[in-house]
Amino acid sequence: MRFVARLCLVPESCGRPRIQPVLEDEDRVLGGTEAVPGSWPWHAGIYTNQLYPAHICSGVLISERHVLTAVHCLTYV
């Protein structure tokens, strides 16, 4: 029950973009929009540079030095 009580203290603005997205006619994700750089400051892209630079996964910042992601994102890193 403590977890639920703490969750209720999160501000309404949490999880909403600081900068509104730009709508494009040709989006890569069905119904999606391109994110404006800096609009989701808690989102982290995870890249590899083994053969060539490539985006492999995403994560979320949980502190100044830690990113939370799924274990399958780090299988080949």
UniProtKB/TrEMBL annotation:
Its EC number is 3.4.21.7. The keyword Disulfide bond applies. One of its GO terms (biological process) is proteolysis. Residues 30-75 form the Peptidase S1 domain. The keyword Hydrolase applies. One of its GO terms (molecular function) is serine-type endopeptidase activity. Keywords: Disulfide bond, Hydrolase, Protease. InterPro entries: Peptidase_S1_PA (IPR009003), Peptidase_S1_PA_chymotrypsin (IPR043504), Trypsin_dom (IPR001254). It comes from the Eukaryota. This is Serine protease, putative. The lineage of its organism: Eukaryota, Metazoa, Ecdysozoa, Arthropoda, Chelicerata.
